[in-house]
Amino acid sequence: MLFRWTNLKSVSAANVTVVGENSFDRNPLSSVDMPRLTSIGNNAFSQNTAPEGSRLSRINLDNVTSVGEYAFSYSGLEGTYQFHC
User: Fold this and answer.
1) Is 56 exposed, middle or buried (0-12, 13-18, 19+ CB in 10 A)?
2) What is the pLDDT of residues 3-16, one digit of tens each?
3) Residues 48, 61: Cα–Cα separation, whole Å
4) d(CA 66, CA 49)
5) Residue 47 neighbours by CB distance under 10 Å
6) How many Å apart are CA 24 and CA 13, to the nearest integer?
7) Closest CA to 40 of 62, 8, 57
């Protein structure tokens, strides 16, 4: 499914394992809770900063083994993340 431009602020999906290309781009997301997530497509969470300054600040990447190009570009996500690829 594609949730582009839907103004989502958070996402919680316990059984999702794959987030496809452009799935959540251009939303003011601040948190993503998908504990079974293993694959993130190109641009999946890109451009997720809101005009008021909120940014993606919480996402669990413990089970992720594949990350597409620009998956988090302009998302505001900070820090260092280690993937098990």
Assistant:
1) buried
2) 877 888 889 999 99
3) 17
4) 23
5) 19
6) 13
7) 62
